[in-house]
Amino acid sequence: MTDGKLRRCLGLIVLVLVAVTAAQGQATPAAEAAQPNLAPTYRIYATREGLVGHTTANGHVIQPRDRFVALPSGTVVSPNGTDKFLVRVTYKGRSVTAPVWDIGPWNTKDDYWNANRRYSDLPVGRPMAEAAALSGYNGGRDERGRHIDSPNGIDIADGTFFDDLQMNRDDWVEVSFLWLGADPGPGAAVAILPPTNLSAAAAPAAPPAKPVEIEAGAVAVDDAGAGYAPQGAPWSEANCGAGGKHTWTKSTSDPAKASASAAWSPQLPAPGGYELLAYIPECGGVATTSARYRVFADGTTTEVTLDQQASAGTWASLGTFHFGTAPPRVELGDLTADNGRVVRFDALAWAPRTDTTAPDARVVAIQRKANGYQITWGGSDDLSGLATYDVQVRVLPKGGWSDWKLGISDTSAWWGPDEGKHFAFRVRGKDAAGNQEPWPDGADMDTTQATP
C-alpha cells in the first residue's frame, strides 16, 4: 500500500471514531431523561393523629379509621377529598400512599422537605421538631414556644396508622414526598438520612431534665419500674419526669375509643395510712385537665379527677387513704373529659401519714319497728377507718343524756318499748388510730323523724 492510500485509510478510521463518539455523547442526555427523578425519601418519626370528629386544615371531618397524613406546613395541604399532595409512607416492609389533609405536628411553617426551607440552618429532611427534641434546637421549643417532647415530623390518621401500616406505637418511618418526584413504589424507597451534627450555635445543648425528688420514706412506683403495668396502645415517651422520662398517650372522651391504660401496684412495708402522690411531668403537649385515677384501697374504689395541666412539674396529691390487707393499686387510662390532649403516666408515691384526725359519726336513720324504733348510725374517717361507736339517748323534750351503747362496732340496734314517748339519739366514733370525736352539742335525730 502506498503512503497516500495509507493516509486515506487512517483518515477514514478517525472519521468513524469521531462519529461513534459523537453519537454516544448525544445518547447520554436521552438515556438520563428516560430515568425519572425519584421523590426524595426521609426517615421521619411518626405519631398517630387520632382526633376523630375534629376538622382537618382542609375542612375534612376526621372519621374512624381515616386515611391521610399531616405535615407541619400549610403549603402542601390538598383540597378536601383530593390527593394533590401525596406521600408514600413505608414501615417495616409495609407501604402505602396517603394525601396530606392536615397541618402538624407542632409547627405550621416547617417545610423540611424543601431545599429552600424556612429553617435554613437545618438540613433538608430533618423536621424542626426532631432537631428541637433531640438536639435542643430553638431551645427545645416549637414556633409557638411550646416545649417539644417528641421528634415527630408527621402525623398519621388511624386507618393508615393501624390498618395499612400495622403500627401499634409511634415509630420511625420512611416518607417519600411524591410532589417532588416520581413515586419510588413499595420497597424501592431509599431513605436519605440528613446529618444530625448541628453546629453549636444552631443546636445548643438541651437542658438536663429537672430532677424529681421523692419524699423520704415514701414507696414509689415509676412508669419504667417494677409494679407498673401498661396495656393497650399507642404509647409515646418524653424526656422529662421521674427517672428522666415518662410515657404518655392521647386522651379521648369516647369510652368506645379508649385503648390505653396502666396500673401501679406498690409493695408497701405495712398496712396503714398513706398519702397518694402523682408526679406530673412538665414537658410535652397540652395535658388533659381531667385525668381519672382509680384508687383501690381496703376493698373500696375511689375515682379522683386531676388537672394534669395545672399540676405540671409537681407532686399532686390524690388524697390520703388507708391501705390494709387488700393489695394496693391505682389505675389510669386515656378516657377523660377532653379529646386529643396528653395523658401523662409517671411515678406514683405512697407517703406514710399518721392519723391525727377524729372520725365523723352520726345517726343516719330511725325507723318505726313494732313498739319501738330501729336506730341506724354510721360515719367516715379520712385515714385509719372507724373502729367503734358510742351511742347516747335522752327522753324528749328535756331529759338528760344517758349512755346506751359503748365501744361497739355494730351500726344498728332496736330501742323500745317506747311507751308513748319520744327519744333523741346522738353518736360519736373512734378510729383505728385511737382518735375519738367529741359528743355533738345536740341530737343527731329523734323519733319524731322516724319513717314507717
Can you offer a commentary on this structure?
A hairpin with a 2-residue loop joins β13 and β14 (300-306). The strands form 6 sheets. Strands 1-5-2-4-3-6 form a 6-stranded mixed barrel. Strands 8-11-16-13-14 form a 5-stranded antiparallel β-sheet, with no helix packed on it. The chain starts with a helix and ends in a 6-residue tail after the last strand. It folds into 3 domains: 41-180, RlpA-like domain (Barwin-like endoglucanases, Beta Barrel), CATH 2.40.40; 219-352, Galactose-binding domain-like (Jelly Rolls), CATH 2.60.120; 360-449, Sandwich (Immunoglobulin-like), CATH 2.60.40.10. Helix content is 10%, strand content 35%. With 452 residues, the chain is mainly β. Residues 1-34 and 197-206 have low confidence and may be disordered.
The CATH topology annotation of the largest domain reads as Barwin-like endoglucanases
Mind telling me the CATH class of the largest domain? Answer: Mainly Beta
Question: What gap, in angstroms, lies between the N and C termini?
Answer: 143 Å
| Uncertain spans | 1-34, 197-206
List the secondary-structure elements in sequence, H or E: HEEEEHEHEEEEEEEEEEEEEEEEEEEE
What global shape is seen? elongated
Number of strands: 25
The chain-level mean pLDDT equals 87
